[in-house]
Amino acid sequence: MLGLKLPTDPRWVNIVEKNIEEILTDHAYCEQKAASTAISLIIGFPEKSELVKEMTALAREEMGHFNMVHDKIINRGWVLGRERKDEYVIELMKFFPKGGSRETHLVHKLLYAALIEARSCERFRLLSEEIDDEELSEFYRNLMVSEANHYTMFLKFARKYGKKEEVDKKWEELLEYEAQLMKDLGKKETMHG
């Protein structure tokens, strides 16, 4: 359903289980960055009223998820660690060339966001099915549904604001690029890397 070309190696869960504190910290910042992305879309494209409305709701939801992850950290007797670089996102952002029209920039941002949400959804599913920690298994099962909805929403907006055929072609190319990236990732207790 997500269209990802290379699934996460299930052994990634074994890496995560060795350092739950690290994955929760990374996850918390991912939620915060997702809220920031929504806010940046509002700031950058205020004339797109439907997008602004959806991004306002999304920013609220993502900060709610951040709060839920932060609560998991606190309840386990830990504190939120420092933000880490997200190698996955850094590498992903190199795919589309810089420049272009404002509309092209918007479509690219929406496609990046869709892919990040799709990969998050896939990772949440894997955690919900494979992690031994029952509390986190249920937590990630519930979040997985949200991420799937976010992924489809971003794709819908990309197709609305760009030419559908071009957007679909770019999406397929981005998926292929991401599959190549994933061959070198999945070896750390981070949500995407």
Automatic annotation (TrEMBL):
Q: Which GO terms describe its biological process?
A: tRNA modification
- Tell me which Pfam families the record gives: MiaE
Q: Which Gene Ontology molecular-function terms are recorded?
A: tRNA 2-(methylsulfanyl)-N(6)-isopentenyladenosine(37) hydroxylase activity
**PANTHER family registered for this protein in UniProt:** TRNA 2-(METHYLSULFANYL)-N(6)-ISOPENTENYLADENOSINE(37) HYDROXYLASE, TRNA-(MS[2]IO[6]A)-HYDROXYLASE
Q: What name appears for this protein in its UniProt entry?
A: tRNA-(Ms[2]io[6]A)-hydroxylase
Biological source species:
Flagellimonas lutimaris
Q: What high-level taxonomic lineage is stated for the organism?
A: Bacteria, Pseudomonadati, Bacteroidota, Flavobacteriia, Flavobacteriales
